[in-house]
Amino acid sequence: MKHLDEYRDKALVKPLVAELARSVSKPVRLMEVCGTHTMAIFRNGVRSILPEGMEIVSGPGCPVCVTSASHMDAFIAMAEMAGVRVTIFGDLFRVPGSNGSLAQASSRGAKIDIVYSPMDALDIARNNPEDMVVFLGVGFETTTPAIGATILVAQREHIDNFCVFSTHKVIPGPLELLMQDPDLKINALLCPGHVSAIIGAGAYQPFVDKFGLSCVVAGFEPADLLNGLILLARQVSENNPRVENLYPRVVSWEGNGRAISMVDEIFEPVDMEWRGLGVLPLSGLAIKEKYAHFDAQKRLDITIPESGEAKGCLCGQILKGITIPPQCPLFDKRCTPANPIGPCMVSSEGTCAAYHKYGRDD
Amino acid sequence: MPDNTILLDHGSGGIASQELISKIFLKHLDNPVLRTLEDSAVIERQDGRLAFTTDSYVVDPIFFPGGDIGKLAVHGTINDLAMRGAKPLCLSLGIILEEGMNIDDLEKIVISIGQASKESGVPIVTGDTKVVPKGKGDKIFINTSGIGVVPDHISISSKNGQPGDAVILSGSMGDHGITIMTRRAGISMDGNLRSDTMSLHKMVSCLLAEFPEAVHTLRDPTRGGVATSLNEIAASSKLSIIIEEERLPIHPEVRAACEILGLEALFLANEGKCLAIVDGKKADDILKLMRTTAEGQQAVIIGRLVDGKPGRVLINTPVGGSRVVAPLHGEPLPRIC
Question: Do residues B34 and B136 both lie within one domain?
Answer without folding.
Answer: yes
